[in-house]
Fold these 3 entries.
Entry 1:
Amino acid sequence: MSIMQQTKTDSAPKHSHRNPDLSWRLIIKDCLYFIALAILLGGVLNFSILADAFNGSLTGKIQQNQLESLKAKSQQIYAGISFIDLTAAKQLYDDKLAVFLDARTLNQYKTAHIAGSISMPPRELLMGITDPSKVVPDKKTVLIAYCDGGECELSLDIARELSSQGYQNIFVLGEGYPGWETAGYPIDK
């Protein structure tokens, strides 16, 4: 063997006999380490959200944010529309001082609705299929429009249209039918 051949043999990498399973184990170990670190950091940075989720208040906070967003949107687009909360709407309901208008589809209305409410989908109202003056002749009647709550805007559409037709006391129940039902208030199925 010549000197050149011996030098090449001596300079060959010593780690060429490395176990390939060991490389994959190290990669997997590193990945698991980073995943654990990400979970830990995610938990620390989102602790208040996680705490709200575990104690059950997260859904309420999300619904409240959706309601605030809907209120802000209505104030920007539909001036003069007032929102009413569940407690005030229930008081008007109990005192029989308001007419409740369901802005959801007729199928949703038939499935379940606020007891005594009237189905008035915006599409039918806008197309002239439903004549509000036949349903509610007195334009000073207190009207409470509702839909699916949260980000549903059908009740806002009804309120805007009724306002343009001269109705003066229109409210939107921001929590909608789901809020009413969750509160245990009267419904018809």
Entry 2:
Amino acid sequence: MATRQLLVLASLLVLVALVALAACGGDRPMIRIGPPPAKATTGALAGPLCSGGACTCAKGPDEAGFPEGAGLKRFEIRLGPTPHDLWATLPGHVLYKSAERPEMCFYVDLPPGKHTVELRASQSTGVSAAISIFELGAKAKTAYATFKFSCGSPGGVCSFEELDGKKAEYQGVKKSLHDPCGSTKIREVVWDTGRPPDRQVPDELAMRFVMQVYKFEPDKSHGDPSCGAGDGRRRDEAGEPEGSEAATPPGS
């Protein structure tokens, strides 16, 4: 009898622990926050504006050039403005913005498929982070506003309330296309933060999302009011129905 009572008690304790864990985690996936990467940019950068692991920010969408390889698309990844160190990692690349420069641009060529990107910030007094990604359209000679995130940028400190607002903002993006004229969707946006015991702002931030790059080449300029009406046709052109994976997800 005593053994049976102990088993029942153990089961109840496990159930209570699971309920408590679910209550703490909510419905937001968690990211394990490790130490920031090394303070260096690694991986191949693309185009005439890049040299020696750094790039100059383009003044126009065609100044950064376009990929020579078949099927590739060029993206501008802009870190900042912020007075803090920032990192963006994606398969084969670590992009580092130093605290000495408020804003830095990087140009990378990506094939169609899914590419996981992670933004990392770490600052003991509270983080300030910002990232903007632009797809450079070779056909329309335009820059599509693929994704933008900022919290505490440019000169403030990121707050938990501001992050909550970003969550609501991203949930309202139709068909995961932040720019309906472009060919790249942003999916699975999640983040996690650190919180020192004596502060009300995060001192660590890790944000992760997936860029789903489609094969078709968009031919309308950024801001064209007719964009979005032919989304189903465009998926057919891409040969990638909704939810398909055109390439092996990075890291697999």
Entry 3:
Amino acid sequence: MTLSDAAATLSDAQLRSQAGELRLHGLLDRWAEVMGQPDQARWVVQLLGWEAAERHRRSLERRLRDAHIGRFKSLADFDWQWPAQCDRAAVEELMTLEFLKDASNVVLVGPNGVGKTMCACNLGYQAVLAGRTALFITAGQLLGELAALDSDSALRRRLRHYAAPDVLLIDEVGYLSYSNRHADLLFELVSRRYQHKSTVVTTNKAFAEWGEVFPNAACVVSLIDRLMHRAEVVRIEGKSYRQKEAEEREAARKVERAAKRTATRARKQ
């Protein structure tokens, strides 16, 4: 059922509420007069349905654009048989977004190419579809941007920006090492979101190895503590799925080239 179809089944009070949400104050002032005439009432119901559907579409497009998720593989296309270890039930439960209700965090741990980013992107996409706000960014982009700000006021504004989304997806923690300054900035951001908004992190390092990511940073233990408190940790183990796809493409190209050579020889004979 579309939003416009649903509008036709709403009660008078619900229609009034919808008109108020759409800020149709002139219509509300003349509500009894307009809705007392069947033809006009049907037109108003249809109009409210159209407008609600259009605003929903625009809101979805805006939130998807602002999320910066980009292109990603749908979870429905993921080969669950490929990882040596992956708790499918845990991942699918995360897609219900129950963890957002109590601002729990999600940490996806595993080596390169096993599907951590894919899972994170799917979580962000599901959040947007559910009417939530999401933002995807790599750790390098996030910390590089924050560290480059040259004034306290600019830094505070940017921290507020990253603290605002219902779910913040920070990708690739552990692929680079960072200074104490970077560690302090990440700690500040995670602290602002702690118990208020959910943060999703993908990392190729176990928490015991985060000292290598943020060497000599005094806040690492506290950072991990805030991330881990009420967090769902999903470990994915296995060989790189991207490498598997690359090998499959190369094998297909070899078959195609061999077929072309065979066809060429056949034409010459």
